Amino acid sequence: MSYTKQILRVNLTAGTCSAEPLNMEWATQYLGQRGLATKYLAAEIDPACDPLGPDNKLIFATGPLTGTPAATGGRYSVITKGPLTGAIACSNSGGYFGAELKFAGWDMVIFEGRSATPVYLLIEDGLATLLDASALWGKTVWETEETIKGRHQDPQLRVASIGRAGESGVLFAAIVNDLHRAAGRSGVGAVMGSKNLKAVAVRGTRTDAYAVADPDGFFKAVNAAKAVLAGNGVTGQGLPAYGTQVLMNVINEVGALPTRNGTGVQFEGARAISGEAMHEPRATDGKPNLINHNGCFGCTIACGRISKMDPGHFSIKDKPQYRGASGGVEYEAAWALGAACGVNDLEALTYVNFLCNEDGVDPITLGSTIGAAMELFELGLITREEAGLELPFGSAPALVQLAELTVRNEGFGAVIGLGSKRLCAKYGRPELSMSVKGLEFPAYDGRALQGMGLEYATSNRGACHVRGYMVSPEVLGIPVKMDPAATEGKAPMLKAFQDLTAVVDSAGICLFTTFAWSADDIQSQLQPALGGDWPVSRLMEAGERIWNLERQFNLAAGLTAKDDTLPPRMLTEGAKTGPYQGKVTQLDKMMPEYYQVRGWSPEGVPTAETAGRLGL
Ligand code: SF4
């Protein structure tokens, strides 16, 4: 069994920390991390509660492979009710924090209540202490991590914290660990801030914290799976060389790159902000943006980007603190801050990405919301006087200035900090928010990729690309090539992807492994780690159970089938260019079949038969 079998419960209202045994019956049904923490959350909170009130809980959870030698086995997730959506929120991060939590002897930390004053949690193996964070309040993520390590004289502490955005109620605030790895989406940092919890610092030294059931079988399977990653073109070459940015030109070519708030599907500036461009010498100083790549705990892919900006760029000319190397743009951030805003200045995108890491903000929602504001400005609905600046599409200075205001929740940044749904509603054009359930789209257009459109509409946490990545079959041909324009077969394929992704997110490994790993490769490692009998069919059923539990949480929170939709633009305005010109997302053709293969009623509710079969 690859669990520590211990949960740490922290009552922030009372200021207490206590240990309790992990519910192993639930662990066999929900695996760990995303699935198991959702089970705890659903059992312990009223799904209708205020996400930013003391009745919401915030759970940091590892999976059974977290901290093991399995490739990419360093993941943890943060699970809560999300403030942008009012739906289940689960945000996954890499780096080293998750593995350290496991080494300290904890599968999960549950935060409940709200502290009267700012605090941070220090975990040293089995010892957990809440400490005063008054002096840290107002500090950035980077300052917080440095200060905590210095205060405890332990450079090996792993720290996950919020910046000024999470403190001040930016609804898409992130939790950042290891300086530039983030539980980025869904506003989990805003929930952490609402609890007056500044940081969690952990140091784990227990090599006996957990044990896999069959060590020999496990190491054999892990080595074989690592060989699969190394031999695959995406995980062995593309991701290490270009990171996820390998996708920028590919997705632009197929006409699936949402541009200028979704008014277009191809960006003429895509090449300038691509992974290839990050490698090339800049015209200004002759040096490339990208200086290195790195990996999370146990990762043999190492897709992380390390960038260094042109010191003469307008954004940092007077800010020497940004001249060092730091986390560079991934594909989603480059798209949201770039194509979605019509900005083709790679250095400006890098600077804003640094800001997002430094102050804990989701760059996808930030870029999408600024893109929506730019469209509202061009329509004359936001004025220069109101915003305090001109906001045309394509303006790098506007992007930079608005991002600076937003991470501090100041001026017009306080409006951007509400996300695009609330921004567009404020200006009387709710349909211009490119979001589902209040969470903004990632970097793929559902008019070109029908399966992605269905995925956005049905994803439990709002528009999401990591809840069943249909780009794999529709663009990359993994595991089979599907016609992006076709609607036939998309519903059952999406269900399989969603269920498998729930397994991956609950196991403690990175989703990027699935570019190379099949369900069999994952099963071959989980089986000896967990012990017992875990055929693929049982794992997939666990994934389906997790998906349906999340659905039930959302229904209890007040969401309905009406929320399983897309903005009118995706359903009525045909793509203007590209191979799928004229196409819209044909949700009406796919949704009935999706509900049917899910075993849900036409109203989108799991039937009694489905709930009974899954033990819900
Ligand atoms: S593939 Fe990338 S994100 Fe995933 S664990 Fe490795 S470095 Fe981290």
Describe the structure in your own words.
- This protein has 616 residues and is an alpha+beta fold.
- The chain is built from 25 helices and 17 strands.
- The strands form 4 sheets. A 6-stranded mixed beta sheet has the order 2-1-6-3-4-5, sandwiched between helices.
- It is globular and about 60 Å long.
- The mean pLDDT is 97.
- Bound molecules: iron/sulfur cluster (SF4).
- Iron/sulfur cluster is lined by residues 72, 94, 295-296, 299, 301-304, 510, 512.
- Residues 72, 94, 295-296, 299, 301-304, 510, 512 line the site of iron/sulfur cluster (SF4).
Write out key terms for the chains shown.
single chain; 616 residues; alpha+beta; six-stranded mixed beta sheet; 17 strands; binds iron/sulfur cluster
How do the helices and strands line up, and which of them pair or pack?
Layout: E1 6-11, E2 16-21, H1 24-30, H2 33-44, E3 58-62, E4 76-81, E5 88-93, H3 97-103, E6 108-112, E7 119-124, E8 127-132, H4 141-151, E9 158-161, H5 164-167, E10 175-177, E11 181-183, H6 188-194, E12 197-203, H7 215-231, H8 233-242, H9 247-253, H10 275-279, E13 290-294, E14 304-307, E15 326-327, H11 331-337, H12 346-359, H13 363-378, H14 384-387, H15 396-407, H16 413-416, H17 420-426, E16 435-436, E17 439-440, H18 450-458, H19 471-476, H20 490-507, H21 519-530, H22 536-557, H23 568-572, H24 587-598, H25 608-613
Parallel strand pairs: 1-6, 7-12
Antiparallel strand pairs: 1-2, 3-4, 3-6, 4-5, 7-8, 9-10, 9-12, 10-11, 13-14, 14-15, 16-17
Helix pairs in contact: 1-2, 2-20, 2-22, 7-21, 11-13, 12-15, 13-17, 20-22, 20-24
Residues 72, 94, 295-296, 299, 301-304, 510, 512 line the site of iron/sulfur cluster.
